[in-house]
Amino acid sequence: MKDLIASLRALQEVDRQRIDAEKERRAITERVEQLSMMLAELEHDLADKREKLKEAERWYKEREKELKEDNEKIRRAQTRLNGLSKPKEFAAVQREIEALRRSNTQKEEEIQKLRAVMEEFQGAVTEEDTKLETMRAELAQEESSTGVRVRELDDRLGGLARDHQGYERDIPPDTLRRYHRIQKSWQGMAVVEVNAKGSCGGCHRQIPPQLYNILLRNNSLESCPFCNRFLYVQVENGENGHGD
Ligand SMILES: [Zn+2]
């Protein structure tokens, strides 16, 4: 029975290492996935901002063109003004010129404001672009180091699977089935020590004294009545603090 417990414990140790390796593998691959998702999102945002900037530039150019056209109108009106002799007509064209000047001043102000906003926006886009460049480099590095580690872990997992098969050979099939069942439901801990005070190393509940005595004899495979895990007690030095 001692050998069976030893084999189960060896199997459990292999499973513990496997679970750790799987956890690490998951964590590092998820990290890379998250990073690349984040990067994609930021790139999408930046593309949107660039599109907005283009729109603003189009608008800016249109306003500038209008301004030029209006200035041309003013120039023509002034030429016309010189040829006019009737005061009424003269006054009418002068009013027209005044109106155009006022609207042009307003347009110029609008254009200047837009220019300032666009410059600020352009600055932010450039800054984000630099940040993204750094992130892309970091992601590439992370991907390559993760790739190396994943291959190491896969090798390790392959080795552990072989070890597992090796230990499985020493365990009767029904015990092995039970082991797998318990190991799955408790995520790794299927074989636990009962401490000197008689509590289960898995669920920490007090096992019945008669079960403890059976375990001390070490000639049968016993389970915790509460959590179903396989139990053993350390009896190497013969002495045990439990009981009477
Ligand atoms: Zn228990």
Instruction: Summarize the helix and strand pattern as letters.
Output: HHHEHEE
| Architecture per CATH nomenclature, i.e. the level-2 architecture of the largest domain | Orthogonal Bundle
**Which kinds of small molecule does this entry bind, naming each only once?**
zinc ion
* Strand order across the largest sheet: 1-3-2
Count of extended strands: 3
Query: What about the largest sheet?
Result: 3 strands, mixed
Shape: rod-shaped
Unreliable parts: 238-244
The computed structural class is mainly alpha
Q: What is the CATH domain class of the largest domain?
A: Mainly Alpha
CATH fold descriptor of the largest domain: Helix Hairpins
Q: Note the gap between the termini.
A: 25 Å
What's the Cα radius of gyration?
Answer: 41 Å
Mean pLDDT: 92
Number of helices: 4
List the helices and strands and how they pair.
Elements: H1 2-83, H2 87-168, H3 173-185, E1 191-193, H4 209-217, E2 222-223, E3 230-232
Parallel strand pairs: 1-3
Antiparallel strand pairs: 2-3
Helix pairs in contact: 1-2
Bound molecules: zinc ion.
Structure, described:
The protein is mainly α. It has helices at residues 2-83, 87-168, 173-185, 209-217, and strands at 191-193, 222-223, 230-232. It has four helices and three strands; from the N terminus they run αααβαββ. α1 (2-83) packs antiparallel against α2 (87-168). The model is unreliable at 238-244 (pLDDT under 50). The protein binds zinc ion (ZN). Residues 200, 202-203, 205, 224, 226-227, 229 line the site of zinc ion (ZN).
